[in-house]
Structure formats: structure tokens, C-alpha cells
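User: Hello, can you help with two protein structures?

Assistant: Certainly.
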Amino acid sequence: MSTEQLSVNIEKIDGQMKELIDAFEAHPQIQPPNTHPTLYFLLDFIRNTHRMLQGIDADKLASGDQAARDAVQEVVGRNQFANLLINDTTGKLALMTGSDPANPVDVGSDIKSKAGALTET
């Protein structure tokens, strides 16, 4: 991991991830009883990543603890992967989640922008 990645602001990422989760939860197609499977998959993936982030000890990260550094790298990578999935235009994500690949879900610009912001952290 590079020195730049060690200076990741965990609090900032935490806030951005909360905003992304809130945006997903507000999406009309995530509402029960007819939750869209692709949105459910993405939200679950992002929530799990957020839990991983919350388990990182900022003091250990600041002191250079290898496990904390590895955990941050994992969160950063998962956020980049989530952004890739959110912006999928191939239909492969829909196919993986049991949806119609010819008619992928539109996550909307709010979710896309919040996911993109996480990759810039």
C-alpha cells in the first residue's frame, strides 16, 4: 500500500458510504415487497463494505498497522468494484442477480454520483 493510501480519511469515507446507502434505501425499486434483485445485491454489498470500514481502528491505521492497512485497501477496492457494478451497461450484473439483462435497472444519477465520489477518496 502506498503512503497516499495510508492517508485515507476513514471518517470521510464513512460519511460518503452512509450517503450512498441512504440513496439506495430511497430508491423506489428497493422498497418491499417488490425489491429489485440487482438493487438488493448492490445495497447488500455496500452495507457489508461499510461494516468492514467501521471495524477499522483509525489509531492502528495511523500507526501503520498492517492489518488496518490491508482492511483499508480492501474497503477501497470494494468501493471501486461497487462503482464498476453500479455503472454496468453490459447487462452482466442483471444476469448475475436474476434480472433481465435486456432491461437493467436504472440506479439513477444520485447513486452513480455518490458511488463515483467514493472512488475519488
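That covers the first. Now for the second protein you mentioned:
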Amino acid sequence: MAVDPLIELRDVNKYFGELHVLRDIGLTVGKGEVVVVIGPSGSGKSTLCRTINRLETIQSGTILLDGRPLPEEGRALARLRAEVGMVFQSFNLFAHKTVLQNVSLAQTKVRRRGRDDADRRSLELLERVGLAAHAGMYPAQLSGGQQQRVAIARALAMEPKALLFDEPTSALDPEMINEVLEVMRQLARDGMTMVVVTHEMGFARSAAHRVVFMADGRVVEDRAPEEFFTAPRSERARDFLSKILKH
């Protein structure tokens, strides 16, 4: 168990109509921990990720952030989303705004920062993801990998307690994947609490504190990466790894 839990899911169940997508999920993520969630398509990974900041509501169970249940709606929910940043497969940047404006916007709207303060913070974060020189460009002028790094800077601008990544590299060309993963590795080294849904096994091995393997809506294994990859306990995980690690 994590010493100082930041995110806790207790007996979480989620249905889409008849489909039981999350089954009695129990998961704790400690402060500063990087938890990578892997598993076959349709296993509930992305849904799990989206319940943590209430992009998906759950039918039963409890989700706690810093010891408090997730708020239902309204301002408290907006605050929660500022505290738990999310990076999606698609970058969701505003096409008509510059990179700098994209990163500053929520700071002025949600965090109520002055424009100059917000812009100064945005430039620091763009520097951190290696894109300060692109601040005046528009998303269409950037590669996919660059756009995703802007999206990460935008999430960081809210000074979140945790970041959720929902397959952040799956829409990228292979040569761009590493530039995004490198930014994520640096965040991990800096102590950011992260829940990462990904197919990138190299990232899971090198950056995760724990690997959570899901199948059929359940957490099947939750272990240190070296244990999971060298000696998975379940038949389901062995089968999954044998398919995914073959080159």
C-alpha cells in the first residue's frame, strides 16, 4: 500500500448500459507515484482513468482524492479538474489560439491569474517541455508530438496534484512518441503523481513504480514492473505479454 494515498478507488463499478466495464476496482495511488495501467483493448483502462476526474460517473463504490470523495458537479468539480490534470489521445488544443494562449487560457479562467502572470508561467512550462521557441505558433504549425507536449504544459499550468494520461502517444507517428515519453519520464523524476494508460511497455518498465494489469474490467495484477514483466502471476497477463512483447 502507498504510504500517503492521493487517489483511492474502493469497490468501483461502472456500467455502460448492460456492459459491466469496471468490476469492483480497488486501487490506491500514493503521492509522487507513477502507476501505469496496461491491458488488452476493452479491459476498462481508459474508463478507469476517466472516472478519477469524473469525466465518467460511477454506479457504485467510492473515489477519493486526497482523502475526500469526488465532488458531484459545479464549481467543486471544476476545481477537481484543475487539481487532476488530464492528457488525452487527441490534443484538444484550440486551433485559433497560439501555443502560449492555449497554455494560459485556463490559468486566467479557472485559476484567476492575471494575463502577465499566466503568460510568464506558460513560458516556463513551454521551456520545460522544450517548446518555448514555439510559443507564438498555432497548433496546425506543430507536429503531433509537439502538440501533445503543449497539452502536457497546459495540464501542468494548473499546478495539479496528479496527472492522468489516457494513451497519450497512441495518435502519434512512431518517431514522435519518444519526445512525449521523455517529457513524461522527466515529470516522473520530478515527483509528479501520474496514472498512465499506455501500450508503451518500455515506459512502463523504466518510469513506473507499479504496473496495473487490467482484463475484463478487473485489476488482475498490481505489481512492481520488474516483477510483472519477468514473472507475471496470471495466465491472462502471461498471454497478453507474450503477444505484446514479441517483435
